[in-house]
Amino acid sequence: MSNLLLSQKYKDFIKCKAPVEFLEGTTAAGKTTVGIFKFFLKVAQSNKKYHIIASKDTGTAEKNIINKDLGVVDDFGVLTEYNGTGTKDEKIPHILFHTNKGNKIVYVMGYGDKKKWQKALGGQYGCLYIDEINTADIDFVREASMRCDYFMATLNPDDPNLPVYKEYINCSRPLEKYKSDTPKEILNMLTEEPKPNWVHWFFSFEHNLGLSKNKIEQIKLNVPKGTKLYKNKILGLRGRATGLVFSNFDRNVHIKSKEWAKQFLADDRKRKKEHFIIFTSGLDTAYSQKSPDTIAMTFFGITNRGNCIQLDEKEYNNAKLKTPLAPSDVAINYIEFLKRNQAEWGLARNVFIDNADQATITELNKYKRKNGCVFTFNNAYKKTTIIDRINMLLGWFAKEHYFILEHCTSTIQEYELYSWLEDKDNTPEDGNDHFINSSQYGWLPYKDKIGCE
Question: pTM score, two decimals?
């Protein structure tokens, strides 16, 4: 039996008594190594005979969980017998685990083959372990998780829009003691209704005492900074790793604070070296109650040095509202959004609305006739192709002429998710783009003033 070096956080993890635990974090953080050790301790304590380990396939489970250094066989030695092809009595591949409460059967399943796991699942189980749950068939997760007493899963950073995040992972919360260990980008996503005692764990290199400092530095150096792979594997942040449209969007460069943006507000006494010369806004609308379509409002300032800064955002989603918004409601909300930003930043006299939504434009103009307001509501300019808009933004990101304030979290998330379609050349997906579209409506009429003085 090997010696397992444990940091204090991993010791607390092993002692933690929770019905459901999710282990997220960087590469080489030791999540699987320590997770599977605790899992078998839970199996030994369980009163049930049957349990499940699930991975992409049984071969992956054998390599990454059962036979690896500090894996099941290494940790528990003669207490375990792995039957990779099953036995006469148990046809499914399984681990026979000898415990003080008798022999336990831990089935080893692959969630990649739906026909196989549908046949294998049945009855109730004691403990369930799902390796890399972010890649698992969501139907398997739903079916298996409702059949167990204890549920543990590891995950690697992935597309935050996957249903497994909404239905499971984002329903968990970190322990108060370790809340500060969790990156705020992930904390901001743990917003689904919390399930009682579901615990989210974030582990990084520093929690893996089996890694030397030299080895940690080697791993970091082998992944180029600024890439999505670095973001996923080294920082442990969620987001698609490949196929991203805005692959050069960098939080460390392009996200700024409100205090930083305030320096460009000019006053009557002295014009600053760099100051806002134009304020503008865009509105993208969708009223479906059945889809995640979003009503997206954005507000921008453009400086005399050609910098375009997104200063604010506001989001509504009819699918999340008990009383859905009508165009007349959106008109009032949008005007309030514009007035609030006018008071804080300045007047955006011309604003731009998705021209596919004439109902909202009609309501805005009706409001203006009835109540009077300083805003001019324009149809969005769409003659510039989507590819041209993308190329402009990529150039502005590269030359550091385009910035987003840190509280615009929905916009930031879209830039980190918006992807190219795999089956069509030079075609982005129709999704993760509501705030991107709203933004484009706002700055397109002033594109010649961005990127140059």
Answer: 0.65
